[in-house]
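Changelog-adjacent note: as of this version, every example in the card shows the full chain rather than a window. The one below runs 61 residues end to end.
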Amino acid sequence: MKLDHQTLETGQAQRLLRARRTAAVVGAIALAVFVFSIAQMLWLQHHPQAHARAVQEALMQ
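Full-length structure tokens:
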């Protein structure tokens, strides 16, 4: 019985580690997207002419 209990705990520990790893990866991706969007917003505020030109070129295509 103890062997089954240990196997169950090992399986639970593996699932917990996998869940934590997945959560860390998802969190890192979300943080990267957030930082990128903030940087993009700041860049657009400081370079409005370049943005307007890029929009105009995209609409011309």
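Structural remarks: The mean pLDDT is 87.
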